[in-house]
Design brief:
This is Phosphatidylinositol N-acetylglucosaminyltransferase subunit Gpi1p. This protein is α/β, with parallel strands linked by helices. It has a domain of 185 residues. The chain is built from 25 helices and 15 strands. The protein is elongated.
Length: 694
């Protein structure tokens, strides 16, 4: 027999009490001690107190109630039980979880964030119960030969509701047998509806929230619109602006968070808004039609939904507030040293590194035999001149467009004709249009306009500033991407031709129609000669020799631009990693673990307290808090998988000549925060929840 009882902190008494609780076969769950149960016996309770009964007495002399007969006085530290000599009992002491503080006992570790494959990492619930019962038997009854099953889902549900049932009983007991009052305080559905009805008082606020959600949904639609998509072909893909801009990706994340915050806040107040016990027979999580319409990535038990919403909501709000505060602080630092920062970007980053040093590097590879290697002079000079001419033209554009003014300026940025850019365009030819509108030497990023934009970006969050720097780096280094992409295509095409011509010496040929390599014997059996002609062998050998001799020169340019492009991608990767940390770091979870680890349920644990000579064992039941490894598990997985840029993929792409890139896994980030996939359905859910009447 298993008795579950809360350890009392009050002064022990030798008086007689009746035990109110629940009974499941050999399991007794103690809820309340009462001195008088006449009212309770005359009018059995209904509603959430259904099943509550008198299951025994404490310090009873001759109790007529079959069940527990406990003895608890000043001489005993823990209650003992009157029983036969050959019977063995176990008392499990626990602190009733406080429902309002989102405390509960669970065999399932709470899922703080979602990630791909997390729902398959845990064992089935029945298997976990077997493991817990086995641990209990090993501690309570180490000599037992047949394992009992003291714990099940019903027992855990009653334990989690112990604090709430006790509160309901006290309210019912004070109501003087008023059935209407009992019905009013007993039905939990009306209690939840009463909380929700408070929002009706703030009707203007609900309308404002609905308007904000509508605007957010429209902006998300614009950011996810696929430009250039062929509507006639369902499998065609267009181009989204979020694919190229880190600022717009950050804006999409913020819009989806603000769009879901109202629903997430309501779920924190009442989990039945998304979870309905009546729906548990229809789907495994018991989600109602609104949560199914939102398509939430929830792989958790019903108890964890409320706590997960609470933690994710406050963690996101905490990170957003910190993001804004850090942005405002960095904005003051930037404007305090604006001239020095602008000079560094103009002189060092743009003019020196991106142009002067790159110009010298291309010249070194083209004309000066790099590292002592003898390259083809004619090919190196020809390819180098093409890259240098493009670099000079791109420098003229960037000096006039992308440089930042170092001084305050309240005038102009536009004028007609003239200037270095206009003269350079006329010298290059092809754009000698009189009156061509260009920027003056101060550039479009003049202080009044650029500082206003920069101040706005910093005030909405330092993450937007990092995204702006990533986009700025991608724009000013666009010529490096073009050089790398061009050299990679030339190198890849040359390697493919060499592979094809190499089959000439192996007696094989490439079949264009079937896209495969065939032996020449196959053609001889079909009536062909099966051998190459002499002129074919000479031509193929000549082309192969020419390409193999020119390959080192092409490879030198390809290696140079590959390393420069790799350096740019590493800087972008660092910026994207900072964005992941600023947007998804579980800072609130760490603070919650330090403050109240009971909310971070990691499973059940039993602690041996003592035992006496009357075959009674006392255990302590409590939650096992999540470890830091479990807290950071999904975050580290997101950090690794949100950006597909690894050494394993870079080296094969370099050898094959395939362009390397940094691919963003935005769906994985949204899934991590448990944001709804159908974000446009949040407005319908909000209107339904706020219009619900009690």
């Amino acid at each position: 027999m298993l008795g579950v009882l809360r350890k009392s902190r009050k002064k022990r008494s030798t008086g007689e009490f009746h035990i109110l609780g629940f009974k499941y076969t050999n399991i007794y769950i103690v809820i309340q001690l009462a001195t008088n149960v006449d009212t309770f016996n005359q009018q059995p309770v209904e509603g959430p107190l259904r099943g509550l009964q008198v299951i025994g007495t404490v310090n009873g002399k001759e109790s007529s109630i079959s069940g527990l007969n406990l003895v608890y006085n000043d001489s005993t530290d823990y209650p003992t039980i009157k029983s036969g000599e050959n019977e063995r009992f176990t008392f499990v002491l626990f602190q009733p979880p406080k429902y309002k503080n989102l405390e509960y006992l669970s065999i399932d570790p709470i899922l703080l964030q979602s990630a791909e494959g997390d729902h398959g990492d845990y064992d089935p619930r029945d298997e976990k119960l077997k493991i817990i019962n086995k641990k209990f038997n090993n501690i309570a009854n180490p000599t037992i030969t047949e394992n009992t099953q003291p714990f099940n889902t019903e027992v855990l549900d009653i334990i989690n509701q112990c604090y709430q049932i006790r509160s309901w009983y006290e309210t019912w007991h004070r109501s003087s047998n008023n059935l209407k009052n009992q019905e009013h305080t007993g039905v939990s559905a009306k209690t939840y509806a009463k909380k929700l009805s408070r929002y009706i008082i703030f009707k203007p606020l609900t309308i404002i929230v609905a308007c904000i959600q509508t605007i957010a949904i429209w902006l998300i639609h614009i950011l996810n619109y696929e430009y250039g998509k062929n509507k006639r072909e369902p499998n065609s893909r267009g181009i989204k602006i979020t694919q190229f801009s880190a600022v717009f990706r950050q804006l999409e994340l913020r819009l989806k968070q603000f769009n879901y915050f109202p629903i997430q806040f309501l779920c924190y107040l009442d989990r039945t808004l998304l979870y309905d016990e009546n729906e548990s027979m229809n789907n495994k999580n018991g989600l109602n039609k609104y949560s199914l319409a939102l398509n939430l990535p929830i792989f958790n038990s019903n108890l964890n939904i409320n706590n997960s919403n609470y933690i994710n909501f406050h963690n996101s709000v905490w990170l957003i507030v910190n993001d804004i505060l850090f942005g405002m602080s960095i904005q003051k630092l930037i404007f305090a040293n604006y001239s020095a920062i602008a000079k560094f970007i103009n002189e060092t980053a743009i003019k020196k590194i991106l142009f002067d040093d790159l110009y010298a590097l291309i010249s070194w590879v083209s004309f000066r035999h790099p590292a002592g290697f003898k390259l083809n002079n004619e090919l190196g000079r020809f390819v180098g001149d093409l890259f240098l001419w493009t670099l000079r033209f791109w420098r003229l554009l960037c000096v006039d467009i992308f440089t930042i003014s170092e001084k305050e300026s309240s005038t102009g940025g536009w004028y007609v004709g003239g200037g270095d850019l206009g003269d350079a365009i006329k010298e290059i030819g092809g754009f000698g249009i009189k009156g061509f509108r260009v920027f003056d030497g101060k550039g479009p990023l003049t202080s009044p306009l650029f500082q206003t934009i920069l101040s706005i970006i910093c005030h909405i969050g330092v993450s937007f500033l990092v995204g702006f720097l990533i986009d700025y780096l991608q724009i000013i280094s666009f010529h490096i991407y073009c050089f790398y992409y061009t050299s990679a295509k030339i190198y890849k095409r040359q390697v493919e031709i060499l592979k094809s011509l190499f089959q000439l010496f192996c007696g094989k040929k490439y079949n264009v129609l079937r896209n495969r390599i065939d032996n020449l014997d196959n053609y001889s059996m079909a009536g062909g000669s099966g051998d190459y002609e002499v002129d074919q062998l000479l031509l193929g050998t000549l082309i192969f020799v020419v390409l193999i001799l020119l390959l080192p020169t092409i490879f030198a340019f390809y290696l140079m631009f590959f390393l420069t492009r790799l350096l740019c991608l590493l800087l972008i990767y660092i910026g994207e990693s900072l964005l992941v940390i600023m947007n998804f770091f579980p800072i609130f979870v760490i603070l919650l673990k330090l403050k109240n680890s009971k909310r971070l349920q990691g499973g059940l644990t039993f602690t041996f307290i003592t035992s006496n000579d009357e075959n009674v064992t006392y255990l302590q039941l409590s939650n096992k808090s999540l470890t830091y490894k479990e807290i950071f598990k999904n975050f580290l997985k997101l950090f690794r998988n949100s950006k597909t840029f690894t050494l394993q993929s870079t080296i094969p792409n370099f050898v094959n000549g395939d362009p390397i890139s940094l691919i963003q896994q935005n769906e994985l980030k949204f899934n991590y925060l448990m944001l709804p996939r159908n974000y446009d359905q949040t407005i319908n859910a909000w209107n339904h929840f706020t219009n619900t009447e009690s």
